[in-house]
Design goal:
Radius of gyration: 25 Å
Strand content: 15-25%
Bound molecules: thiamine diphosphate, magnesium ion
Largest sheet: 6 strands, parallel
Distance between the termini: 61 Å
Number of helices: 24
Length: 616
């Protein structure tokens, strides 16, 4: 007879999570780093009680905002290259909905996280309960249905035994490199508390390993033939290179065949910035060196990238009309984009097999040499825009220069939204794989500080530097207090340009009037003068406003010795961004307008759109 153990659904769920293990560098460890929780109606009595029972094996962390705690969980998974992850539980209603944006962020970036929102009573007896919405025509609809389009797997648990297949499926999805993404199990609050005789085998320890699919022979042969016919080959390294930890295989292929490499936002740090074949950022926020090669390339080996518009310059960057794209990706959906030759495989396996099959073949030396001189030219240009200055309002690039000089390349640098992603993609000199943590799939304002916290939980021995604009900071800063409470130090550099600088610049570039972006251009009675240092200090951080680039460098050097989260604020210029490098981005300009500036921008826009390749 099957041995059983009588537990509530919530107790069984938390016990199951604690039994899931992984192996990293030969060391077995729990795959769940913990559970983020904000309790309320719909999870405190059920999941809350169950988490208390397992608090030593599966730690619970309390945050101040459900979206932020989910950001921390997501960043934790990313910093662990998807080898470990976390769960996040909320009450029903507003707490649950606060996590939906984060679920979409994880969905876009293909990152594993387990969402456990509370849900309505399955028995419907007390309906409508506090925080329950009512659909007049659909008795099964709850706010948690909002998770469906932003989850790779969604289930609503209306009976306690349902979690047996549901948790197994959740683990499959979160550990599969192709399917990987957020899982939502909406937990009806009465069912959380209901007991069931679970088979003991459900709680057997299970060790999950990274699956590394090898390429199909036919696809490999076609990719090798395409590469061998190339005279101007280029590799684009996306986030999949990092998730696969394929930097060694990438370097070997690039060096062996003399193929230059460029990097997407997600793939930056696949090779160190100073690797001679690393042309660094490609696309809308790309370097001169990378974009020139991309324009000419006849074979583009796109590894582990979704080929989003910032990478492809809205599909206007690759100008060689006879080009072939090879899509090396573990997910067929990505591998075949834009009629690419698909090479469905794990990045490390695919790169290794490609390298072996190329068997000494090399790109023409002139192409590789051309890349090296382009890189030198770019480095000189980048040096100019990041050099120290004593202007009153430095540019983002000048602040980046200061952070780089003070902190070096071996910190983990994190950013997500505003003008910083573009500047950092171009200018940050990344070190080891994973040392550049960008959330630019969804570019969620408010990811930065909570994300930094998640990274620090994953990498407690590393220095985590968060760069953030005033707009993002004001949107979501509460987890500074959590970082202080947990003793997890972040170094936060806040660039205050008094508004949404990058959107104001985009508005101007599309012919718009300066309107509703910078604080001075927004409807106001009193122009805000926000004391960010005082604000951060009130949350428990060490905080200082610096008045110059030199002052920032000094403060950063000092901050290395701080054991507590430190926030350094600097005023910056909202109008300046780095002109050199970059590429056109498709942002639709109005076809008719009473503003001549818009009409002129539309004309220029129509010209640019002619460069876009449709389909090929
Ligand atoms: C949640 C969210 N809302 C809105 C946007 C659109 N958006 C992108 S950047 C930006 C302004 C960011 O301002 P700030 O953080 O001060 O950076 P800056 O542009 O000034 O460099 C806005 C509104 C977004 N990316 N995320
Ligand atoms: Mg700003």
């Amino acid at each position: 007879m099957t041995k059983t153990i009588r537990l509530t659904m919530a107790q069984a769920l938390t016990r199951f999570l604690g039994c899931q293990m992984t192996e990293i560098d030969g060391r077995k460890m729990p795959i769940f780093g913990g559970v983020w929780a904000i309790f309320g109606h719909g999870n405190v009595a059920g999941i809350g009680e169950a988490l208390y029972q397992v608090r030593d094996e599966l730690p619970t962390f309390r945050a101040h905002n459900e979206q932020a705690m989910a950001h921390a969980a997501i960043a934790y998974a990313k910093a662990n290259f998807r080898r470990r992850f976390m769960a996040a539980t909320s009450s029903i209603g507003p707490g649950a909905l606060n996590m939906v944006t984060a679920a979409a962020l994880a969905h876009v970036n293909r990152l594993p996280v387990l969402f456990l929102p509370g849900d309505v009573f399955a028995n419907r007896i007390p309906d409508p309960v506090l925080q329950q919405t009512e659909d007049f025509s659909d008795g099964t609809a709850t706010v948690n249905d909002c998770f469906r389009p932003v989850s790779r797997y969604f289930d609503r648990i209306t009976r306690p035994e349902q979690i047996i297949p549901a948790l197994n499926r959740a683990m499959q999805v979160m550990t599969d490199p192709a399917e990987c993404g957020p899982v939502t199990l909406a937990l009806c609050q009465d069912v959380q508390a209901e007991a069931f005789d679970y088979p003991e085998s459900f709680f057997a320890e299970r060790v999950w390993h990274q699956r590394r699919p090898r390429p199909d022979r036919g696809e490999l042969a076609a990719a090798v033939a395409a590469l061998k016919a190339a005279t101007k080959p280029l590799v684009i390294a996306g986030g999949g290179v990092l998730y696969s930890q394929a930097s060694g295989e990438l370097a070997q292929l690039a060096q062996g065949a003399g193929i230059p490499v460029c990097e997407t936002q997600g793939g930056k740090s696949s090779l160190p910035d100073d690797h001679p074949l690393n042309m660094a950022a490609v696309g809308v926020t790309g370097t001169l060196a990378a974009n020139r090669l991309a324009e000419e390339a006849d074979v583009v080996l796109a590894v582990g990238t979704r080929l989003q518009d910032f990478t492809t310059g809205s599909w206007a960057l690759f100008k060689n009309s006879g080009k072939t794209i090879i899509g090396l990706n573990v997910q067929p959906f990505d591998a075949g984009k834009h009629q690419a030759l698909p090479l469905v495989a794990d990045a490390a396996e695919g790169l290794a097999e490609l390298g072996a099959a190329l068997n000494g073949w090399q790109a023409p030396a002139a192409w590789t040499d051309n890349a090296a001189s382009g890189k030198k030219e770019w480095q000189a240009e980048a040096g100019k825009v990041t050099a120290s200055t004593n202007v009153a309002y430095p540019s983002d690039a000048q602040v980046i220069g200061a952070v780089q000089r003070a902190m070096g390349s071996d910190v983990i640098l994190l950013h997500a939204a505003g003008g910083l992603p573009g500047e950092l993609h171009k200018l940050w000199q990344a070190g080891a794989p994973g040392s550049y943590h960008a959330e630019y799939g969804f570019s969620t304002m408010g990811y930065e500080i909570a994300g930094g916290l998640g990274v620090k939980m994953a990498k407690p021995d590393d220095e985590v530097v968060v760069m953030i604009g005033d707009g993002s900071y004001l949107m979501l800063n509460s987890e500074i207090a959590t970082s202080v409470m947990l003793g997890l130090k972040l170094t936060i550099v806040l660039l205050d340009n008094r508004g949404y600088g990058c959107i104001n610049r985009l508005q101007m570039a599309t012919g718009g009037a300066n309107f509703n972006n910078l604080l001075k251009d927004a409807r106001h009675e009193i122009l805000p003068d926000i004391d960010f240092a005082a604000h951060a200090a009130s949350l428990g951080a060490i905080a200082e406003k610096v008045s110059s680039i030199a002052g920032l460098e000094t403060a950063l050097t000092k901050a290395k010795d701080n054991s507590k989260t430190t926030v350094l604020v600097i005023d910056t210029d909202p109008l300046v961004s780095t002109d050199v490098g970059g590429h056109w981005w498709d942002v639709a300009v109005p076809e008719v307008s009473s503003r001549p500036q818009v009409n002129a921008a539309r004309k220029a826009y129509e010209e640019k759109r002619r460069m876009q390749s449709v389909g090929d």
